[in-house]
Amino acid sequence: MEPFTFSRAADPAEAIRAGTAASTAQQGAEVRFVAGGTTLIDLMKLDVETPRRVVDINHLPLAKVERTSDGGLKIGALVRNSDLANNAEVKRDYAVLSQALLSGASSQLRNMATTGGNLLQRTRCVYFRDTATACNKREPGSGCSAIHGFNRNLAVLGTSDHCIASNPSDMNVALTALEATIVIRGAHGERNVPIGDFFLLPGNTPDRETVMEPGDLITHVLLPPPHRGARSHYLKLRDRASYEFALASAAVVLASEGGAIRHARVALGGVGTRPWRSPEAEAALLGRPAERATFAAAADAALRSAKPCSQNGFKIELAKRCLASALSTAAA
Ligand SMILES: Cc1cc2nc3c(=O)[nH]c(=O)nc-3n(C[C@H](O)[C@H](O)[C@H](O)COP(=O)(O)OP(=O)(O)OC[C@H]3O[C@@H](n4cnc5c(N)ncnc54)[C@H](O)[C@@H]3O)c2cc1C
Ligand code: SF4
């Protein structure tokens, strides 16, 4: 691990001031905030992240889950994954989020991991974590070892010739289906970013993963009020039953009336370079009866633009079945 200085931020403004000293908020940042540390410290041990300064934000007053005046939810960036998953209102009104969180990592990790840190966790592409190999995300312009290498766990949607890394988070998939908004405080004040605009496609700058700028601090995540009569579900498929990332996952929110689907939100995990909202699947569901043929058509639509590499073609069928099954469960 490279030498670095460590400090503790007492209020958000102090954290933002410290963070703004960095020339970039992305890979290679000189200043990093640390929350649960379950991503950052691992990557520092591997010399993948080499900040000169680490700012502990754990003392900031951002660890509450509160109702908003419109009936939505305001989740502090420092709310631990286990607290969020077990929050009574989350379990009742946003079941898909609770299920997604509980499917991730292990209970020990969930006790440490935070909402803000989970949003910003990095890919599990093996080359990203191995400084002896070429990786455009870690070292822009060095090449991508995965495209013709070990790519079994990587993305089939939203890829580019420069990077095919999948976004590994379960929580992010549920937040995408729930149309969350990320509240960010930075050097120029506060802004609200819809989750659909928060994550960037890799294109030819895979090192830039989100719209975060130097010094930006995620303070909250906002959820809109739950859709009346909707049911939601998260299904995760992986190589083993726990402590494993998704090969494919699906987060769905569904409401039917008069024998037809009137509200549908669909997001996929494990298969996209970012948490993958599927407007194609949603369009294939709306106005149709909640039955097997409809779900299969939606799953086909969701994966129509998928581009497999040498080892991950199986994910296309897996993701289709995953989505169709999640939709059946939500509709049952
Ligand atoms: C063995 C293992 C298994 C795992 N399995 C899964 C899994 O199955 N599913 C899954 O979804 N995840 C899994 N994870 C990932 C885990 O969920 C993340 O590591 C965790 O959510 C990150 O949260 P953290 O608070 O520890 O982040 P940290 O490590 O503290 O921070 C991560 C990044 O976010 C930045 N950051 C943190 N908070 C803020 C903020 N408020 N504002 C701005 N920047 C911020 C940090 O600077 C850092 O760059 C696993 C991790 C491990 C180690
Ligand atoms: S897929 Fe992305 S993260 Fe993996 S080696 Fe290629 S550039 Fe790096």
Strand order of the largest sheet: 4-5-8-6-7
Question: Under the CATH scheme, which class of the domain at 231-331?
Answer: Alpha Beta
Low-confidence stretches: none
Largest sheet features = 5 strands, antiparallel
Number of strands: 12
The pLDDT mean sits at 95
User: Which hetero ligands occur in this complex?
Assistant: flavin-adenine dinucleotide, iron/sulfur cluster
CATH superfamily of the domain at 231-331: CO dehydrogenase flavoprotein, C-terminal domain
* SSE topology string: EHEHEEEHHHHHHEEHEEEEEHHH
The N- and C-terminal alpha carbons lie at a distance of 51 Å
**Share of helix among residues?**
25-40%
Which fold does the CATH topology of the domain at 231-331 refer to?
A: Enolase-like, domain 1
**Looking at the chains present, what oligomeric state does this protein adopt?**
single chain
Shape: globular
Structure characterization notes:
- The protein is of the alpha+beta class and about 325 residues long.
- It has 12 helices and 12 strands.
- The protein has a 5-stranded antiparallel beta sheet.
- Helix 5 (about 95-100) packs antiparallel against helix 8, helix 10 (about 280-285) packs antiparallel against helix 11 (about 290-305) and helix 11 (about 290-305) packs antiparallel against helix 12 (about 315-330).
- The structure holds flavin-adenine dinucleotide and iron/sulfur cluster.
